[in-house]
Design a protein that fits this description.
single chain; 3-methyladenine DNA Glycosylase, Chain A; 5 helices; about 15% helix; globular; DNA-binding
DNA sequence: ACGATGATGAAC
DNA sequence: TTCATCATCGTA
């Protein structure tokens, strides 16, 4: 079983999509060669009110993609050095996204994009084979007891309510 | 514990 | 146009 995930999968709330992405495969195609990595850690950023989300400041040039249709990449630069890879989720007009923080063998969102040569060139592009970066269901079933829920990382400034939400999902 | 390193958004 | 901030990481 090998299915490329599309809009139907991503067009749900970020806290629904994020745990479902654990066990799916991030596939990168470069100069004819494919590399696939099982996703092991994700974080959900959901809605205008989520103060940990870039979208909480409203529609800007950068966040516009988060307000758009599900199934597109949102890639941005952080600390002047690292690129963060997100998938836009939810309905068109509703800002939400899932940050892919780790895959099997590559721990950390900044390391992940560096290793897979993922840059802001992917920003706003579709999550599909044609862009060279997509996500597949390869039939791996992850038992919910193997998905740990925790608070998100690096969002202390979002205020107690949003910083405490257990929207980080880790494969254990 | 700290500095690297540059885009972003808000203030002025 | 300046300025603080930042969904991080490597070195110490």
């Amino acid at each position: 079983m090998r299915k490329v995930l599309g809009k139907a999968f991503f067009r749900r709330s970020a806290p629904e999509v994020a745990p479902d992405l654990i066990g799916k495969y991030l596939v990168r195609e470069m100069n004819g060669a494919q590399e696939a990595y099982m996703i092991t850690e994700t974080e959900a950023y959901e809605g205008l009110d989520d103060r940990a989300s870039h979208a909480s400041r409203g529609r800007t040039k950068r966040t516009e993609v988060m307000f758009g249709p599900a199934g597109h990449w949102y890639v941005y630069l952080i600390y002047g050095m690292y690129q963060m890879l997100n998938v836009v989720t939810g309905d068109d007009g509703h800002p939400s996204a899932v940050l892919i923080r780790a895959v099997e063998g590559i721990d950390g969102p900044g390391r992940l994009t560096k290793r897979l040569s993922i840059t802001r060139d992917f920003n706003t592009k579709k999550v599909s084979k044609v862009t060279g970066l997509w996500i597949e269901d390869r039939g791996v079933r992850i038992d919910p007891t193997h998905i740990k829920k925790t608070a998100r990382i690096g969002v202390e400034n979002a205020g107690p309510v949003w910083a405490k939400k257990e929207w980080r999902f880790v494969y254990i």
